[in-house]
Amino acid sequence: MPRRRRIPSYRLHKARNCAVVTIDGKDHYLGPYNSPASWEKYYRLLAEWSANGHSLRPAASITDTPDLTINELIADYWRFAQEWYVKNGEPTDAIYGIRVALRLLRQLYGTTLVKDFGPLKLDALVGHMVEKGWSRRYCNDHLGRIKRVFKWGKSKEMVPTGVYQDLLTVPGLRAGRTKAPESEPILPVSDELVAETLPHLTSVVADMIRFQRATGARPGEVCIVRPMDVNRITDVWEYRPASHKTQHRGRERIIYVGPQAQAVLRPYLLRAADTYCFSPREAVREHRAKRRANRKTQRRSAQRQRSRRTRAKRAAGNRYRTDSYRVAIQRACKRVGLDEWSPNQLRHAAGTEARALFGLEAAQVMLGHAKADVTQIYAERDRQLAREVARKIG
After folding, report:
1. 212 φ/ψ sector (left φ>0, alpha ψ -120 to 50, else beta)
2. What is the dihedral of CA 202, 207, 208, 211, to 10 degrees?
3. Counts for the chain of helices (H) and strands (E), in that order
4. How far apart are CA 282 and CA 294, in angstroms?
5. Span 201-295+302-339: which CATH code?
6. Is the distance from CB of 155 to CB of 102 less than 8 angstroms?
7. How do the domains of the chain map onto residue ranges?
8. For residue 253, with 0-12 CB atoms within 10 Å meaning exposed, 13-18 middle and 19 or more buried, which class applies?
9. Residue 21 forms beta bridges with which residues?
10. CA atoms within 13 A of residue 13's CA, in its CB half-sphere
11. Domain at 70-167, CATH class
């Protein structure tokens, strides 16, 4: 979590008998203390300091520092990214991809001058990604992140005119025209495989799976269900997540909870309104109770002490994260020899079923997509429906 920065204070410089503010270790004299002109200058400096990533560096301009290196640009952008890609006080998933892209850029061209970084160097960087065996889509994602670094630098007058525009001429990798492998598409998980997995999970994780399969919610939306977020006035409940993927675009997300999902969720609503329904602490208690019940021998004192120390170090949180939710499922599959699958495949399965029964528009509304073409990625793989069409008209 990024550290909160203190706002530079407006204060009196007694020796000079004037107002002063200290930013980046440098005193900026503002004029007569408590005068309108001094306050105007103070607020102007604060605005520039905040807009420039909590720094006042006139040297950041490329006209003043033609020898600005990629390393310096990366350092400034990383400081910006750590404060920008934050939601609810925690870094978003985007920050981890940015870190990988910046590390690769620094390793190959860290000491290169910003003004000398052109399309050929960016193309070589993409080629290095391909040589590392990264998938085509993964390479294109990092290509876009690196372009955004220079776009941000251009907006801060750190990148010369023309450098960013030249980098835009480097196209992304296209299918069939690159050595980069294609990533495997995410297919819906079969209900049969889900049913085989459920008995080997705790009741909490099993109910998370049942709820997600019935509603088509994203894994992160399942993890943060709270009683206060569920409107139970009508026969079909409405769940409005406190945070969701497209929140930063000003879009509202409503997940409609039907009878099957209501039956799963109802017991978890009998708790404090602001607590998370699916608690890993409850799952851990259930898991430990089951292990104690199946234990054949009595535990020794040393084993109990070691167990207490382990619990203290690895205490469960108050809610699941998307990673811990996925790992719980995949560990259960691995333990009993089933094919591993992920929570995202439940969403694909729900979207495919909704489209098969009610059409593309219904699947789009259920999954919360703004565009139908995104929904088709989730719902287009209903091969059973294609076979039925072929039987009738093929």
Report:
1. alpha
2. 170
3. 17, 8
4. 19
5. 3.90.15
6. no
7. 11-56, 70-167, 201-295+302-339
8. middle
9. 28
10. 14
11. mainly alpha
The answer to whether the CB of 326 falls within 8 A of the CB of 343 is yes
Residue appearing with tokens 């200290």: 22
**Two tokens, residue 205:** 């994780």
Q: Summarize the confidence of residues 255-265 as an average pLDDT.
A: 91
Q: What is the distance between the alpha carbons of residues 64 and 259, in angstroms, rounded to a whole number? A: 66
Both tokens assigned to 136:
């085509």
Residue type at 391?
Answer: R
* Direct distance between the N- and C-terminal alpha carbons of the chain, in angstroms, rounded to an integer: 57
DSSP-assigned letter for residue 227: G
* Structure tokens belonging to residue 253: 């997300």
Tokens of 306: 């070691």
Q: Residue 327 and residue 219: Cα distance in Å, rounded? A: 12
What is the C-alpha to C-alpha distance for residues 278 and 274, in angstroms, rounded to an integer?
Answer: 12
Q: Which amino acid does the sequence have at 118?
A: G
Residue 76 token pair:
């400034």
Instruction: Retrieve residue 69's tokens.
Output: 């290196």
pLDDT digits (tens, 9 = 90+) for 151-195: 999 988 889 889 999 999 999 999 989 999 998 878 889 999 999
Q: How many residues does the chain have?
A: 394
